[in-house]
Amino acid sequence: MPDALSLARSFAAAAPATATFTVDEGLAWMIQELIDRARAGWPELELSEERFVEHAARSIEGNDVATLLAALHAADLWLACGCASGDPAAIAAFDREVLSQTRMLLGRMQPTAQLVDEVRQLLREKLLVAQPGQRPRIAEYAGRGPLQAWVRVTAVRTALDLLRAGGVRTGGEVQPDDLAAAASSPELEYLKERYRPQFKVAFQEALRALDPDKRNVLRLHVVEGLNIDEIGALFKVHRATVARWIAAARQEILAGARETLRRELGLSGGEFDSLAVVVRSQLDLSVAKILRKPDT
Predict the structure, then answer these.
(1) Complete DSSP assignment for 81-144
(2) Rounded to whole angstroms, how far apart are CA atoms 126 and 135?
């Protein structure tokens, strides 16, 4: 078993270039403390400590390593690392402790038993099965938030995809903001903060591409606070027409912003899926901020 200083060197070697820190006894102590916390959560899982610290290092940015390491969800990261490595005990624990909660993850959707079973099976495939030449998607979990919250994003998205495809039914009404509800995890908060400038540019470009009439209607709705009846009276059209205008404008902005982010950021598949959730959840807020500027 490597000593703490050797593990600290492995950690440094795997860290991104944006992370700046010194490999010394202090870092070695922090790495050992992270491992101790991880093992305490899953004492039955015997994993490679070197592989674990390399996994943890990929999520480190900046120079405040002590704060970043202390904030990591060590036990969840240990489990995810084991699953990414194909450890049978870790995969069994993930199935038992996380995937068994699929119904709870989809709670507000009032899922049927069929939907729960379908989503759980697809989660196994999406998160644990590696595509040729790639690591399994569970390897993208960085430990910045609870593992269950990270899985919930994929679970909700998977369920909505199934429902849209007409393969299964839900016991309740699927709300249009179900994806937005899934966008509250610390992992996604990190993505929003990390890509804040790119988000702003993506929404600005999408708004500029929008038809001026649609942009004006959207400004009246999200900035001025007019409802569809009030806007309908202004334009002398039925409220249903206004609702269609607003929905079409939102959809065009959403599609444009997502395409800009996908094209320019070069994200992993998991990060892009997460960002797609965030884009939808932030749509009206971002549009309102931009449209309040007189030159937009």
Answers:
(1) HHHHTT-HHHHHHHHHHTGGGHHHHTGGG-B-HHHHHHHHHHHHHHHHSPPTTS--GGGG--SS
(2) 11
pLDDT tens-digit series, residues 47-60:
988 889 888 887 77
Least confidently predicted of 55-59, 145-149, 199-203, 265-269: 265-269
Residue of 176, 181, 191, 194 lying closest to 270 (CA atoms): 191
pTM of the predicted structure, to 2 decimals: 0.59
161 Cβ contact list (under 8 Å, min separation 6): none
Among all chains, which residue has been given the structure tokens 């309908």? 232
Sketch the domain layout of the chain as residue ranges: 4-82, 98-191, 195-291
183-192 residue pLDDT tens: 445 555 556 6
Query: Do 109 and 174 meet the contact criterion of CB atoms below 8 Å apart?
Result: yes
